[in-house]
Design brief:
The protein is mainly alpha-helical.
């Protein structure tokens, strides 16, 4: 048991160090942008018969379409433990949890905007053996209710959800290195929660590659990812740094618990660097 706990500590410490590294935090959004931009170029090299090419495959239904829900459960669970164990204040904990609430509101607003754009730019069609036949129906819900097809400019909600979930997850997990350096409680269960949440990052990147390979047109994927980057920038690099906001990750949390900050080897401006 001691060996397993030691291994868990090593893996957790190394993962926390990677996620808090300045290079990862500065260029992770660029990595996601490159995935969305250049992955479609590999489309001719991948067989369209693979399971990921089917719209109703298990990963699309259970993971991609509910990416933000998984992010709230796993990342939110880690955030709950981190904020409460370091502050001991329910009010402070709720304040930090409200970042995910803000993200939920933004996600819903963007997804509804995507539907509105598709509705405004689309028309109703009937699928026939000869091709698509235009139907004079201007109401999208009624068109779909009648079993017809609505064709409009459909922004990729999958590209948006996977990109935004990835960016939020990195922001919320990147403070663990400072948390551990300050000597706050870190049981095996706490570390396991962090590792489960951190596994979302490679998973979302993999599914983002799958999505950009097989679904939507190029511009639709780019626009979806751009919306996600904009939401992340306006919150974590804008609003959350202001006084009247949920606050940036680690705000009023990472204070010395067992030893002075200078003795722990962590500089006083590291928290500010995390917000850069």
């Amino acid at each position: 048991m001691k060996l397993l706990h030691s291994a868990l500590c090593v893996v957790t410490d190394q993962t926390a160090a990677v996620l808090s590294h300045w290079f990862v935090r500065r260029y992770f959004q660029l990595w996601l942008a490159l995935l969305v931009t250049f992955t479609p170029l590999l489309g001719d090299l991948i067989s369209p018969r693979v399971v990921f090419a089917k719209p109703r495959n298990y990963f699309n239904v259970r993971l991609v379409d509910s990416a933000w829900s998984w992010t709230c459960v796993l990342t939110g669970g880690h955030l709950l433990l981190t904020s409460y164990l370091s502050s001991g204040s329910l009010l402070t904990t709720l304040r930090h949890q409200s970042r995910l609430l803000a993200g939920t509101v933004l996600s819903v607003a963007c997804l509804r905007t995507f539907i509105l754009i598709e509705t405004v730019t689309g028309s109703c069609f009937h699928q026939t053996p000869e091709g698509l036949l235009l139907i004079e129906l201007a109401d999208r819900p009624f068109c779909l209710m009648q079993g017809f097809l609505w064709k409009g400019y459909s922004i990729s909600s999958q590209s948006f959800l996977l990109t935004y979930s990835s960016l939020v997850t990195l922001e919320e997990l990147s403070i663990l290195k400072l948390y551990l350096a300050h000597g706050y409680p870190a049981s095996g269960a706490f570390r396991l929660t962090f590792l489960l949440a951190s596994l979302l990052l490679p998973l979302w990147s993999f599914l983002l590659v799958s999505t950009t390979l097989f679904f939507h047109h190029f511009s639709q994927k780019i626009v979806g990812a751009t919306f996600a980057q904009l939401c992340w920038y306006l919150t974590y690099k804008g609003w959350f740094l202001c006084r009247y906001s949920p606050g940036c990750p680690g705000l009023h949390l990472l204070r010395p618990a067992r030893q002075p900050l200078r003795q722990s080897g962590v500089s006083n401006n590291m928290l500010n660097r995390l917000a850069m």
